[in-house]
Amino acid sequence: MRVTILVEDYSGYESPYLAQHGVSFLIEKNGRRILFDTSQSAGPVLHNMNLRGIEPSSIDYVFLSHCHYDHTGGLLEVLKAIGKRVPVVAHPLIFRRHFVTKPYLRDVGIPFRKEEIEELAELYLTAEPVEIVEGLYSTGEIMNREDFERASIGVYTLRNGKIVEDELPDDMSLVAETPEGLVVVSGCSHAGIVGIVKHAARLTGEKRIRAVIGGFHLIDASEERISRTVEEFEKLGVEEVYTGHCTGLRAEAAFLGAYDKRFHKLHSGMVIDFQD
Prior knowledge:
Layout: E1 2-7, E2 24-29, E3 32-36, H1 42-51, E4 61-63, H2 69-72, H3 75-82, E5 87-90, E6 99-100, E7 106-107, H4 114-118, E8 122-125, E9 130-133, E10 136-138, E11 156-159, E12 162-165, E13 174-178, E14 181-186, H5 193-204, E15 209-215, H6 223-236, E16 240-244, H7 249-259, E17 263-265, E18 271-273
Parallel strand pairs: 3-4, 4-5, 5-8, 14-15, 15-16, 16-17
Antiparallel strand pairs: 1-2, 1-18, 2-3, 6-7, 9-10, 10-13, 11-12, 13-14
């Protein structure tokens, strides 16, 4: 199994790869290629794919972790580059109105209509876990969230004409079974990264956690929540941590202190191999 970090907030030292506030990963398992998110625009994604010799037409599936523009904005142009109708797996609520009001009213959700995507791909919208490739699952909606991970991030939606806080129910991750344990891949972990890992273990029946990869959205978290997250990872036996994007420097430093050489900062162009 291979995970290639196509786009991340950080490009790395003396790197030819482009960085962008956003996330796009390529996951290869059992001879299939799954594009996990498309960053906020397609340019850096396609540029970095070209540098790694990855043909867009070789992608078999697209998975969208949640609605935010920095994970979905490149979708249409990437689908055009793929040039064939591939399945796009996402939560049924991904097209809802999603916005912030500070410092001004601004939409931060997926910047396309459902119909635009359906012209290019096959939508698989489900809140249920689904096996995309043998041994690789969408977690589905994370229903059992950890109390200490519940936090407002100032985003809203419309419900029956009323503005209500949006708790991002569409936040989903991927989990892969390997001989060494589970590999959990998350976009922003709005559902809470500890809750996501526990959900993945329940879903698969596998307690060994080989690695957790992605953004953990601890950038504005309290020191207490950051410490608790690291402690829970250690209790769960998470072997390696690969993180960046919305995790935040303080949280990355905490994981580095606890995991030492088993902590890895994500960057564009990074390749992570696991036994399959």
